[in-house]
Predict the 3D structure of the following.
Amino acid sequence: MSNYGPVIGLLGGMLAIFGLFLAWISIETTFLFFTTTFEATGWEIFQDYNDGFDYYYIPLIVMVLGIVACLVAIVSVSGGKGVGAINALLGLAILALPIAFYYMSFVSGNDVTFGEAMESVKFGAGMWMCVIGGFLTSVGGLAAKGD
């Protein structure tokens, strides 16, 4: 019987790593008839905008957790016991951190509701990729733990 859990966990970890280099946020502003859009990748948020965001280090943590999740998935393929639970927890952290970054950066400090913030500041493809990668890592960890 083959075990797809570690493969799914590895794929999720890789999505979390690659998601760091795609747009995490897209901010749209309109003045009169002119609309401008600002996009920033997770890496740019960490490296270039560490003055503008209070939680600029969260994308780097997501990348490190993605790397660790990939390594744990590889160990799980080679027969490591009990590492599925570790990957399930890593996946939950990867899933939660981008959403926590968005909430802490754009909602809690600005006295707006989550819906109001979503009107002008959108999740980018990279943030969604990290969230999906975290979900897949958790599913892969749970599948590996089940064997």
Notes: The chain has a mean pLDDT of 80. The radius of gyration is 17 Å. The longest strand covers residues 23-31.
